[in-house]
């Protein structure tokens, strides 16, 4: 087991009152490749046309498909380093991102493609739906991330396993979480990748919206241990993570004096750190004797001592806990307890360091440049610099505390449009090569671009003269631009 500083917190008092249920979870439900709104239960998914402008859509033909699985958006451009959805968000907000996939042999193949998925600049998982598709199932992936700007990008990208096939997606959900949810995590440095979210002892449907206001999916989990049913309700707002009350309806237990042994989650985990939250409730009817005390251990290491589970419920969470391989949870009853331990639900997330940050000023300037071009390269969306192997076509960045754009080279790229004033905010840009395109309008004031060394704007349709400020740039060594006048000091 890897060494790590371990933090544990016990929550038994109200933390944050929730505003109540609404007709839709707070955020966006997107049907990828669709052209009209579709309904799934009480939820309405909107077409993806307002969130992405690349890729192609195609219908899926298969019996008894859920509405959101009847179309996919796929990305056949093999030169694109990534293909991104851009979701409007609140800067600093915390979001649950869920990607949903059903291959359906949309391309006439026999095996689903394998590819990467990226949230902002962080590569958070590989998509491989082969096993689920062979079983006739769809697949979904989740990550919890903070928005560092006014938009959140969710991108798909080829990797060495993609081959001649193409990344695709069926649906995308981006739900805003309350501030209290998973709040011990430093989301400026990490994202949380969902490994498991289960209700123990349940064997019915998945618990989701409207029981969970954020549309989190709580899968049923049963093993060989006895199952109990709760005789009292909990109040969701009594818990930091706001679990649905239904997650406490059932639990697994064992007989008096015995340890409760559980192997959970049901997957082998890579050796790293995880966020773990476990939920407990005394299942008997409320009375002075309705409580039970037990110790909680994970892989033989004490997780919490003398936990007192009452009918009001209790959660214990560790924001950073080392796990590796199979995970075993052991609940050991305190001496003299008339009943055995009980557990109702659990969540576990892999703590994944963010893949770096690009200076926000550079991101804004590059987004402005992309909007000013009428036909930018197809991968000019999402983070311009990150991940490093998925930076925008023609863009090179430095990678220190913040990534910075240091060159933009799109010579003879067939680009039309204009140069926005915001380009002057690229203060680390050393090389700007846009010759041989169809750019129009005037060259904006480039003062402040003190790192600029070479400027190529020849063979465009630009008007006027180069601004005098260009001739004063301290590092500028080369200007190639066919305009009326060069700056006096050039």
Automatic annotation (TrEMBL):
It is a single-pass membrane protein. The keyword Ion transport does not apply. Residues 1-22 form the signal peptide. It comes from Senna tora. Residues 30-351 form the Malectin-like domain. Keywords: Kinase, Leucine-rich repeat, Membrane, Receptor, Repeat, Signal, Transferase, Transmembrane, Transmembrane helix. InterPro entries: Leu-rich_rpt, LRR_dom_sf, LRR_N_plant-typ, Malectin-like_Carb-bd_dom. It is found in: Membrane. GO terms for cellular component: membrane. Residues 361-398 form the Leucine-rich repeat-containing N-terminal plant-type domain. It comes from the Eukaryota. One of its GO terms (molecular function) is kinase activity. The keyword Glycoprotein does not apply. This is Putative LRR receptor-like serine/threonine-protein kinase. Pfam families: LRR_1, LRRNT_2, Malectin_like.
């Amino acid at each position: 087991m890897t060494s790590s500083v371990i933090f544990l917190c016990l929550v038994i008092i109200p933390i944050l009152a929730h505003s109540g249920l609404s007709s839709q979870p707070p955020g966006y439900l997107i049907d990828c490749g669709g052209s009209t709104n579709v309904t799934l239960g009480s939820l309405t998914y909107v077409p993806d046309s307002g969130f992405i402008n690349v890729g192609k859509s195609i219908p899926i033909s298969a019996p008894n498909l859920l509405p959101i699985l009847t179309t996919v958006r796929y990305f056949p451009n093999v030169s694109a380093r990534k293909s991104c959805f851009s979701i409007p968000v609140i800067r600093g907000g915390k979001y649950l991102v869920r990607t949903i996939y059903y291959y359906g042999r949309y391309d006439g193949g026999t095996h689903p493609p394998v590819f990467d998925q990226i949230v902002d600049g962080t590569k958070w998982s590989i998509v491989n739906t082969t096993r689920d598709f062979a079983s006739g199932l769809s697949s979904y992936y989740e990550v919890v991330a903070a928005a560092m700007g006014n938009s959140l990008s969710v991108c798909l990208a080829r990797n060495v396993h993609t081959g001649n096939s193409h990344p695709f997606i069926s649906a995308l959900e981006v739900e805003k979480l309350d501030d209290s949810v998973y709040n011990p995590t430093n989301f400026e440095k990490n994202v949380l990748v969902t490994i498991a979210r289960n209700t123990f002892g349940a064997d019915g449907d998945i618990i989701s919206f409207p029981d969970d206001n954020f549309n989190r999916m709580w899968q049923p989990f049963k093993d060989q241990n006895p199952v109990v049913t709760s005789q009292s309700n909990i109040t969701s707002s009594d818990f930091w993570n706001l679990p649905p009350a239904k997650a406490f309806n059932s639990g697994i237990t064992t007989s008096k004096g015995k340890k409760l042994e559980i192997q959970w989650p049901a997957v082998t985990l890579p050796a790293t750190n995880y966020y773990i939250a476990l939920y407990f409730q005394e299942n008997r009817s409320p009375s002075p004797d309705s409580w039970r005390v037990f110790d909680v251990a994970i892989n033989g290491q004490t997780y919490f001592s003398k936990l007192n589970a009452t009918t009001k419920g209790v959660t214990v969470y560790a924001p950073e806990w080392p796990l590796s391989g199979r995970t075993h949870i052991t609940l050991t009853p305190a001496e003299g307890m008339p009943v055995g331990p009980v557990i109702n639900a659990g969540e576990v997330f892999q703590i994944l360091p963010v893949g770096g940050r690009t200076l926000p000023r550079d991101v804004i300037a590059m987004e402005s440049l992309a909007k000013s071009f009428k036909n930018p390269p197809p991968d000019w969306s999402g983070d311009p610099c990150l991940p490093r192997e998925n930076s925008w076509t023609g863009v090179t960045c430095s990678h220190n505390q913040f990534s910075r754009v240091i060159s933009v080279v799109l010579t003879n790229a067939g680009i039309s449009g204009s140069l926005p004033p915001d380009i002057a905010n690229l203060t680390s840009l050393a090389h700007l090569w846009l010759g041989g395109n169809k750019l129009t309008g005037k060259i904006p004031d480039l003062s402040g671009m003190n790192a600029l060394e070479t400027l190529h704007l020849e063979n465009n349709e630009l008007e006027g003269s180069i601004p005098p400020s260009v001739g004063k740039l301290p590092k500028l060594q080369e200007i190639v631009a066919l305009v009326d006048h060069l700056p006096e000091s050039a």
